[in-house]
Design goal:
- The chain is of the alpha/beta class.
- Helices cover about 25% and strands about 20% of the residues.
- The strands form two sheets. The chain has a five-stranded parallel sheet, sandwiched between helices. Strands 6-7-10-8-9 form a five-stranded mixed sheet, sandwiched between helices.
- The radius of gyration is 20 Å and the shape is globular.
- The termini are far apart.
- Keywords: Cobalamin biosynthesis, Methyltransferase, S-adenosyl-L-methionine, Transferase.
- Pathway: Cofactor biosynthesis; adenosylcobalamin biosynthesis.
Length: about 250
């Protein structure tokens, strides 16, 4: 018996990896966050599978479900939106499974920021414009940020900044980033990336908050800030240069 932590991707079922699809189809128990994982993804589960919406459950209740499945010799598909390596709360679940002696593995998924960049048709790392991507959030209604990882501090590094779990505080985001990025810095918000009801907003730091409020976006969105979003005049990369030695 194994608990399979599975990256469920940004929402579109056809963005699941083949491994993820097969593990879901073979697991008699499926734990998922109903607020993030679309119902059609559950159609991949076995017909008689036990499906558990964890959206309103505590950590202890979620782990109890996994341990109970282990005691009955049942594999568990634990779906995490996006990729489990980022903001999935996987580490705290693994810690408790280790203590309980329950085996687990991890299957990666398409992260929300990658789906958002695809929708925007933008590379987040553009030669001489931005070669660093910072993935972060803000501390509102969540655990505190570590020392030195405030949004204001991270903004001074430049590059492309991607914020998860922060669109409900878009005004605060703009206020903290404007001093380092500038009010005219390109910004975008993509809500429900890859889904049929996807919402895409493009603008600048000085007008993106208004657009978010007008659209009524309060959750399930990625904020991207940085000059790479509007880069047009930049040198070709060295990767495919005809001056590069290929011997």
């Amino acid at each position: 018996m194994t608990v399979h932590f599975i990256g469920a991707g940004p929402g579109a079922v056809d963005l699941l990896t083949i491994r993820a699809r097969d593990l879901i189809a073979a697991s008699p128990v499926c734990l998922y966050a109903g607020s993030l994982v679309p119902p059609e993804m559950l159609e991949l589960c076995p017909p008689d599978a036990r499906t558990v919406d964890t959206a309103l459950m505590t950590l202890a209740e979620i782990v109890d479900e996994m341990v109970r499945a282990h005691e009955h010799g049942l594999d568990v598909a634990r779906l995490a939106s996006g990729d489990p390596s980022v903001f999935s709360a996987m580490a705290e679940q693994m810690r408790r499974l280790d203590a309980a002696g329950v085996p687990y593995d991890v299957t990666p998924g398409v992260p929300a920021y990658a789906a958002a960049a695809a929708t925007l048709k933008r590379e987040l790392t553009v030669p001489t414009v931005a070669q660093t991507v910072t993935l972060t959030r803000i501390a509102a209604r969540a655990t505190p940020m570590p020392e030195g990882e405030s949004l204001e501090a991270l903004g001074t590094a430049g590059g492309t900044l991607v914020l998860h779990l922060a669109v409900h505080r878009i005004d605060e985001v703009v206020k903290e980033l404007a001093p380092s990025y500038g009010a005219d810095c390109p910004a975008a918000v993509v809500a429900y990336a890859s889904r049929e009801h996807e919402i895409v907003l493009r603008g600048r730091l000085d007008d993106i908050a208004h657009a978010v409020h007008e659209a009524g976006i309060q959750r399930t969105a990625v904020i991207i800030v940085g000059p790479a979003l509007a880069a047009e005049q930049f040198p070709d990369s060295h990767l495919y240069s005809d001056t590069r030695c290929r011997a």
